[in-house]
């Protein structure tokens, strides 16, 4: 029987990125709470959430035979603090102020989960921002691009001009590391 790949995500970026590598897939909508447990490291947190998304997708599909579910999570990390999606404009501006003129990490983990097997891979990137003044931060927040994005920015959008240096994976920063995803899919015979 052929494997059916499902992307457990509501993120349009992840659909676009998975489509980019020419893999056929369907989408299953999941809604997993994203809350870091006390004492949980940023990487453990990202991995747990990504795994929970994939697990929730598999559960939701129930009786689909040979379903393989991909779950992913991406967070921005600065000084061991995790910056998820901003709650509002003030939160977005506060995150950008903290990211201004320094380097931060972006952690992206992908889990592939099927009825009898699960595997994961993590991509770690370092992104260095130019210094941002209050006017630049206000204009960026007003553009609306900060919302729904970890760390209140989108490298693939206007914030591309803030990025002085990137080490790691551009697709990983955007939400789905394509090298790691491709290798995982190959191991499952799904791409
Ligand atoms: C840092 C960064 C993040 N992002 C996005 C990718 C993710 O969609 C989002 C991080 O939030 P996630 O919780 O990883 O994903 P999500 O809630 O958008 O989607 P789902 O859980 O349904 O899969 O931030 C960008 O688009 N560009 C960037 O440069």
From TrEMBL:
InterPro entries reported in the protein's UniProt record: ITPase-like_fam, Maf-like
Membrane-spanning ranges: none
Family that this chain belongs to: Belongs to the Maf family. YhdE subfamily.
Active site: 73
GO terms for MF: hydrolase activity
Free-text function comment from the UniProt entry: Nucleoside triphosphate pyrophosphatase that hydrolyzes dTTP and UTP. May have a dual role in cell division arrest and in preventing the incorporation of modified nucleotides into cellular nucleic acids.
Main location: cytoplasm
EC number, as in UniProt: 3.6.1.9
Protein name per Swiss-Prot or TrEMBL: dTTP/UTP pyrophosphatase
Site (Important for substrate specificity): 13, 74, 156
UniProt entry keywords in alphabetical sequence: Cytoplasm, Hydrolase, Nucleotide metabolism
């Amino acid at each position: 029987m052929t494997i059916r790949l499902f992307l457990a995500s509501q993120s349009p970026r992840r659909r676009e990125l998975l489509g980019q590598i020419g893999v056929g897939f369907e989408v299953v909508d999941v809604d997993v709470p994203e809350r870091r447990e006390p004492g949980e490291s940023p990487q453990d947190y990202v991995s747990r959430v990504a795994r929970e998304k994939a697990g929730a997708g598999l559960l939701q599909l129930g009786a689909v035979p040979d379903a393989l579910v991909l779950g992913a999570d991406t967070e921005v990390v600065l000084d061991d603090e995790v910056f998820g999606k901003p709650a509002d404009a003030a939160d977005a501006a506060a995150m950008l102020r903290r990211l201004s003129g320094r380097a931060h990490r972006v952690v992206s983990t992908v889990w592939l989960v099927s009825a009898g097997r699960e595997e994961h891979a993590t991509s770690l990137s370092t992104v260095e921002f130019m210094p941002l003044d209050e006017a630049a931060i206000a204009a960026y927040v007003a553009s609306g691009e900060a919302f729904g994005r970890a760390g209140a920015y989108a490298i693939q959008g206007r914030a591309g001009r803030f990025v002085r240096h990137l080490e790691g994976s551009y697709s990983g920063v955007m939400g789905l590391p394509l090298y790691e995803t491709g290798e995982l899919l190959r191991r499952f015979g799904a791409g």
